[in-house]
Amino acid sequence: DAKTTQPNSMESNEEEPVHLPCNHSTISGTDYIHWYRQLPSQGPEYVIHGLTSNVNNRMASLAIAEDRKSSTLILHRATLRDAAVYYCIPKSSGDKLTFGTGTRLAVRP
Amino acid sequence: GAVVSQHPSWVICKSGTSVKIECRSLDFQATTMFWYRQFPKQSLMLMATSNEGSKATYEQGVEKDKFLINHASLTLSTLTVTSAHPEDSSFYICSAPSDGRSGANVLTFGAGSRLTVL
Fold it and tell me: Chain A partners of B93 at a C-beta cutoff of 8 Å?
C-alpha cells in the first residue's frame, strides 16, 4: 500500500474554502486516489476519487498533482456538517481499503 | 445512491455471550463485503473480507473462530462475536463495493454497530 501523509488536524471558518492536503509519494500507477470522511459516531462516507485529472462532484473537488505524488481535497464552502476526519487513500481496483490516521477538520461557526 | 444498512446500531451484552451484527446492501448486490473495527480515537482496522458463498478471508491477527462471518446471500453478511469479552467492545463497521463501473471500487459503508461488553 502507498504510504500517505496528512496533517493531524485543521481548522476552518464556516462558509470559507478548505484545502486538505495529502502526500502519497509512493503511489503506484494503477492506484486511484480516494477520499472518504467520517463524521462523529458514523461509518465513513465516500467523498471523491480520481486517477490523474482533477475531479469535481457535488461534495468537493479533488486536485491531483501532475506527478500524482500529492493531492488536495477542496471543500468550496465549509459548513458545520463538514466537521469530520478526512482520509486520503491511494488504492488499486482490487485492493482493500486501508485507512490511515486522516485529518480531523474542525469548522468554526 | 447505494445504501448499506447495519443492525443493530448499538448493543450491550454480558461477558461470555455471543452477538450477531447484520450488514445488508439495500439496493445493490454485493459478492464481497468488508468488516472493520474501530476503537475510540483510532482509525478503522480491516478485520476480514466476507465472500458470498465461500469462506471469509481474515486479516492477520484476527481470530476467525471468535469473529464468525457468514455471507449467505448477495445482500447479507453477518458478523458474530462469540464469547464476547470487554476487550471486544468496539465500533464495528461493514462496507460493500457499490460502484464497479469506474474501476475504482468505491465502497459504501454502514452506519456502524457499537458493541459494549460488560
Answer: 43-44
